[in-house]
Amino acid sequence: MEQLIPIASKLQDVLGAVGQNTQLDLPQIVVVGGQSSGKSSVLEGIVGRSFLPRGTGIVTRRPLILTLVNTRTPGYEHSQESSENQDPNSDSDDVGVEWGEFVHMPGRKFHSFQQIRVEIVRETDRLTGSNKGISNDPISLKIYSPHVLALTLVDLPGITKVPVGDQPENIEEQIQEMLLEFISNPNAIILAVTAANTDVANSDALRMAKAVDPYGNRTIGVLTKCDLMDPGTDASDVLLNRVYPLRRGYIGTVNRGQKDINEDLSIRDGLSKEEQFFSNHPVYSTDRNLMEKCGTKILAKNLNNILMHHIRDVLPDVKNRITTMMTDVTLELDALGVPGQKSRNTLGGTLLGLLSKFATNFASIIDGKALVELFGGARINYIFNDIFSTSLMTVGPFDGLTDEEVRTTITNAMGTRRALFVPEIAFDILIRRQIARLESPGIECVDLVYEELQRIAGQSEPKELNRFPFLRERLCDVVSNLLKRCMSPTQMMVENLVKIELAYINTSHPDFIGGARAVAAVTNRSVNLQPIRTSELPEGSTSETPTSQATNSQFFNAEGENEGEQTPYGPPTIVHLPSVPTTMKQTDIPPSDRELSEMHVIKSLIESYFKVVRKTFIDMVPKTIMFFLVNHVKDALQNELVSELYRESEVETLMKEADDVAQRRQNCEEMRDLLGKALEIVNEVRDFNTFSQVE
Which of 565, 586, 597, 605 is most buried, judging by how many CB atoms fall within 10 Å of its CB? Predict the structure, then answer.
């Protein structure tokens, strides 16, 4: 079962070469903990070597991705190196079987773990400087040894709260953001390191882990410094999951102290010292359950088992993603075409194929074949029905037309004498003015469809067209010119639709209310007003108006008789007429009943006829645009492209590849090969799964 993790490590290497590590999210063990919690000692205990930088304050300032490779794995081959490159302080008598390799220094082997420590410090300072700043850019290190279990771990900066020295004021926020970036990955296994001589309730590592893993499904607690607890106390309650329960539990460890490091106590001797501590402890040694939770070796085995099961579960998804990436790369390679010189006839055939494919794509998009969102022709239909039609229905018959303008127009239409009937010329003048207002929305609809066709043209470009920048530029020019040529007659026809309506006001239209019906409607509307006015007269009065009474009085008293008094005789009075004003308005004079009736009749006629014209306009504008613009462009596009672009003298110029196409083709071929290797590595798991099922 331990063969699974080396397979995953090889897979990650292959994908790392094409920059796809984060996409595939291979499971890793992420180590988090506060400063001086013993993170470095835990990692060095698992590796069996002292190689991490040490010091005061924040030492780890970049993520360290540490891959452990067991050189005793069946089928693994390694070359024996000369002993002169071996670390003189090596903990092992083996020659040439332990070394480290950095991804940023491919091919170079570090046999001295002291040199590995120096290189980690140097690479950290290279990117972050010496002011104790941090960076999310990881350092990738592989340790090859027969003494390690196959694990992949990520060491992160220790959690700190107070900046010291030259550290930035927001160092705590920077570190927390980095930690969350790594541990938020749902495939990450969190190794939360806490010192045993502190209260786990105050553990920064457990707090951070709980923020992204509230149920503890992927968090392992590690209690370090178990040998430094106060006499008479132990960590048994925490290790037995009684204090702060975690689904995966806790492991207790004993670290090398500073005194041990100063005395050059080797990692291997430190692990032996740790094993003796737990074996001789009066509490841990007497409980088998506790002993299964104590020691760095136990921690390493548990981590290995967890990671192997985890990788086995996620590899199917990894394979699907690699397959998808392989498909994308293959499609891109097909779009980039086959390199090499071609004859003029071959280039001409390729050119015709591209032009035909563009025209076909353009027509297909207009016809509409998308499933997710409105696309192509559906968007044009949306413009017609949901934008143009809906907006035009909000245009009222009397928008921009006041009652005073209607009254004034009627009065002007009567001329020098009072008309017996409502003058038709007033209706004619007013309805033409309202109809003319429809032209602007119609032209705007043409503009919207024109812009949509430009959008469709951009979506119709075959991927292969990107290889030929000159052809792409000329093709766009031809399509743009065709659209512009078709747009002008379309706009003119929409303008003519309005002119057609203005040329002849068809009062015989079956949907038009007509003059007689308008008068009848107004009469029925005002028939109830007369009784009301009669009932308002004083008691005993007749329905005659004061004017009629005066007329009757003058008629029956023609000889100047008056009931009360007589008019004295005198010289006649000279009457002077006022001067005619320069401008005359009716706003100061309230309309008479007759004028109100005439206004109602005219407005009824305007409303009825405007609705007739608006309905026709809503129907005719989309038809006009489809005939003069959309369908004409769709039908003429291929012939236009061929006639303008397929010329023997220009074929070689148009079919000249872009300068970067060759490099892009090479990159795609390399990525295709790497992804093919990745698929082979994933398929190696198939035999393992089959074997495990048989067992």
Answer: 605
Nearest Cα residue to 364 out of 356, 640, 372: 356
What would you report as the CA-atom Rg of the chain, rounded to the nearest whole angstrom?
46
Q: Name the helix (H) or strand (E) containing 101.
A: strand 99-102
The beta strands (E) that lie in 128-282 are given as 139-145, 152-155, 189-195, 219-224, 250-252
> Residue 387 carries which DSSP code?
I
Nearest to 3 by CA among 371, 311, 384, 330: 311
Which residue matches tokens 């001086």?
36
Under CATH, what is the fold of the domain 348-520+594-658?
Answer: Four Helix Bundle (Hemerythrin (Met), subunit A) (1.20.120)
- CA within 13 Å, CB half, 348: 9
Residue with the two structure tokens 């993170």: 39
Evaluate if residue 604 carries a pLDDT over 80: yes
Closest by Cα among 221, 218, 225, 216 to 198: 225
Token reading at 237: 């309650």
87 near 117, Cβ under 8 Å?
no
In CATH, the number for domain 27-318 is 3.40.50.300
Q: Is the pLDDT of residue 536 over 60?
A: no
159 DSSP assignment: B
Alpha carbons within 13 A on the beta-carbon side of 420: 0
Residue 500 has pLDDT above 90, yes or no: yes
CA torsion through residues 141, 144, 149, 150, sign: positive
- Cross-strand bridge partners of residue 142: 67, 101
Coil/strand/helix, residue 244: coil
Tens digit of each residue's pLDDT (9 = 90 or more) over 266-290: 888 888 999 999 999 999 998 888 9
End-to-end alpha-carbon separation of the chain, Å? 12
Residue 272 CA to residue 45 CA, distance in Å, equals 11
8 Å CB contact between 66 and 144 = no
Domains 27-318 and 348-520+594-658 share a fold: no
Answer whether 14's CB lies under 8 Å from 326's CB: no
Domain boundaries, the chain: 27-318, 348-520+594-658, 663-695
% of the chain exceeding 70 in pLDDT: 74
Beta-carbon neighbour count of residue 540 at 10 Å?
5
Residues 274/268, Cβ–Cβ less than 8 Å: no
Question: What pairing do the DSSP bridges indicate for beta strands 64-70 and 152-155?
Answer: antiparallel
